[in-house]
Amino acid sequence: MQLAHVIESFRADGKVAVVTGAGSGIGRASALALAGAGAIVVCADVDGQRAADTAAHIEASGGVGSSATVDVRHRSEVEALADRTKDDHGSLDVWCNIAGIMVEGPMVGTDEADLDRIIAVNLKGVHFGCQAAARIMTGQPAGGSIVNASSAAADAPSPNVSAYALCKAAVVQMTKSLAFEVGRRHVRVNAVAPGFVLTNMTGRYFVRPDGTVDEEMREAVLAPMRAHTPLRMIGEVEDIAAAVLYLASDASRFMTGQVLRPNGGVAMV
Length: 269
Ligand SMILES: NC(=O)c1ccc[n+]([C@@H]2O[C@H](COP(=O)([O-])OP(=O)(O)OC[C@H]3O[C@@H](n4cnc5c(N)ncnc54)[C@H](O)[C@@H]3O)[C@@H](O)[C@H]2O)c1
Description:
This protein is α/β, with parallel strands linked by helices. The chain has helices at 25-36, 48-60, 75-89, 112-137, 162-182, 200-203, 215-227, 237-248, and strands at 16-20, 40-45, 64-69, 94-97, 144-149, 187-192, 259-260. The protein folds into 2 domains: 3-197 and 237-260, NAD(P)-binding Rossmann-like Domain (Rossmann fold), CATH 3.40.50.720; 198-234, no CATH class.
């Protein structure tokens, strides 16, 4: 790559991108960032209304976005999303597996139904997304880029998230396996492993049932996290979206099978 092209390589003009989990939090921020960088973004979420809200936000900002109601637990829905995107737009250049859920509790107390529930979304859902995207991208001369959401929970043990952590560790492994398989077809596969950021998933620790925030509880949760983070800060969804955009764009064209860790330094691997 010539030096003059380095900065423009961070743009995503004309790329066709799918983001799962685009209705909220990191997925939403990633969809907005990709659209802001020039991508055509299909916002997919099991909550179709929220996905449509994100797409509307993209359009209102002058970007190109559409939405799809997709449950990543169902392979047929994920495959159909990939095919529809390629049919509608002519290519599938970026696929971000961001949809995820949390199941909490100690490992010894995790029941089978909860284990199945989180594996269905956080592990199999990502697997289905990887398969669907890779099937199409490997048939394109320009290949494509797949970005998976792992977590700092996969890097270091923390209390009550063992089922979540096992899925996020599996995401790292499947990222590497697929990267190895499809690299020669110009398809790159990388992951982001964020530290704690405030979203609907994490905000519930201090959001009351009526939607108001318990400020005292908020500080009780965030202060120790901040204190244990080398950068002494809590990340924001845009911090993760920036990493997703980098991995999606040609700026990372020499990277595959890697894990980027926007986590304030909480885990250094
Ligand atoms: N927030 C954090 O601190 C943090 C840290 C590390 C990793 N992550 C990961 O980042 C991703 C996004 O998390 P977030 O914090 O933005 O959560 P969030 O709850 O704000 O957003 C998750 C989105 O995924 C969607 N979703 C859930 N199940 C789905 C399904 N079956 N099919 C399609 N969509 C589905 C939800 O509707 C929601 O819009 C997750 O994979 C999460 O594990 C989050």
